[in-house]
Amino acid sequence: MGIFSRLGDIISANVSDLLDKAEDPAKMIRMIILEMEETLVEVRASAARAIADQKEARRTLQRLDAAQSSWAEKAELALSKGREDLAKAALVEKQKLGQMADQILHDMSVLDEALAKHEEDIQKLEAKLREARTRQTSILNRLETLENRSRMRRMMSSPKIDEAFQRFALMERRVDLAEGRVESYDLGKTKTLEEEFAELKASDAVEAELAALKAKVGGDSK
């Protein structure tokens, strides 16, 4: 059973209200779009039939006009030959065809009104369908965001995360131990005379650079 019972229900429907009341908005919007698409196909099919009827009516009207002209010519011919009875009979046939033409003209005006209504309905349906598809995109994006957030929370609360960090800590500990073993070889070593003079030179160089920097800073502040 569809959500809507007739075309007017779709056109007057408030999509937002329908979705707010739905337990499953994603499923509801799919159903709404499906029914709108099916209704649009039906309205277009009805419009196509009306257009076909119009074309057929125009062709029939042309044939009737031609037939009326033919009977008028026959009436003139009959009068010219002194056959008033045949002329009258020809005019009777012409009048019958005229009445048929008048009925077809009336039917064509009805078809014009129906086609105009179909066009109006199609425009309104397409607008509703665009609105529904926009809402569907919004709902799907929100659901995807919620799913991603839920997946992230599940991942962060997973014991595998703790196990991974424990492995990282263990690896860091192993690196610390390896570095400690290397640095332990330098413990207890006495500095050579060259190393001590090198340190003195390095210290003098640092002091000189520091003094130059102080002088520069002091000069800039004046």
Could you spell the SSE succession in H and E letters?
HHHHHH
What portion of the residues fall into strands of 2 or more residues? under 5%
Mean pLDDT: 80
Rounded to an integer in angstroms, the radius of gyration calculated over CA atoms is: 47 Å
Helix proportion: over 70%
Number of distinct helices: 6
Overall spatial form:
rod-shaped
Low-confidence stretches: none
Number of domains: 2
State the secondary-structure class: mainly alpha
Report on the biggest sheet. none
Terminal CA distance reads 89 Å
Report what the structure shows.
The chain has 222 residues and is mainly α. It has six helices and no strands. Helix 2 (15-21) packs antiparallel against helix 3 and helix 3 (25-80) runs antiparallel to helix 4 (84-156). The model has no long low-confidence stretch (mean pLDDT 80).
Short description:
With 222 residues, the chain is mainly alpha-helical. 89% of the residues lie in helices and 0% in strands.
Features:
single chain; 222 residues; mainly alpha; 2 domains; 6 helices; 89% helix; 0% strand
Please give the structural blueprint.
Blueprint: H1 7-12, H2 15-21, H3 25-80, H4 84-156, H5 159-184, H6 193-221
Helix pairs in contact: 2-3, 3-4
